[in-house]
Amino acid sequence: MQKYADYIKRIEIDSLWSGVKHIIWDLDRKVNVLSGINGVGKTTILNKVVKGLAQGGEFPSHLLKGVHLKVYPEDAKWIRYDAIRSFERPLVNSELTSQLNIPMGTEMDFQIYNLQRKYLDYQVNIGNRIIQVLQCGGPDAAKKAEKIAEPKKIFQDMIDQLFVSTGKKIIRSENEIRFSQMKETLVPYMLSSGEKQMLCILLTVLIEDQKPYVLFMDEPEVSLHFEWQKQLIDLVLKLNPNIQLIMTTHSPAVIMNGWMDHVTEVTDITVGSHSPEKTDDK
Length: 282
Description:
By secondary structure, the protein is α/β, with parallel strands linked by helices. It is built from six helices and twelve strands.
């Protein structure tokens, strides 16, 4: 049986820059924000960890050379994880989008397309669980069913509140995500860059189904309004209280709602030209 980690306790990277810099980063259970000037290695650190996680999250045998993870529980061999990148780059494979007959033009559009498929699976899963609870009966069956459905409602309420100034609302009777605006129906590919970005992040977190996940985000503030940046961490934690965030940022707004103590400078986790000493965790 696959044993999954609840979170990552430490990231160690030998020889990040040609053998002269090594990384030892002890992580918080919930929120970890990596900061530093351009070119110092923030994205490189995240990429080295994510690239070493196999599809599905099996990690000890797939980690890149020089990358070491300490997790909790210590004997876990798998990590549930998601990685979100923020760039609205044009899709290279336009032939694929034409075959799908969907108006996608950017990599973020393709992310949304894949998330829509996972969202459908998520709804089937929670629907089956609700049916099972109701069939079992009992005086609290209705409350249990309501609790299973609650994260989806929280997600929908969040999106509606975030988009309220433009009059967009999720059509809750649809299986796929669609929006109504001034009596017109919009698909997610018609949203602004910032709206797509926030939808991608929150939908990714929703379909984690409140399981322990590690969410890697590289500069998620790109395209987000200042007020959305301030709310981002709190929204993610509300949707999945069991998540661990590991992210990079250049934006002070992201940490303004009480997360300043969770910021780590790359220079503070960098040691010299010797291999980092493997010490016991405190």
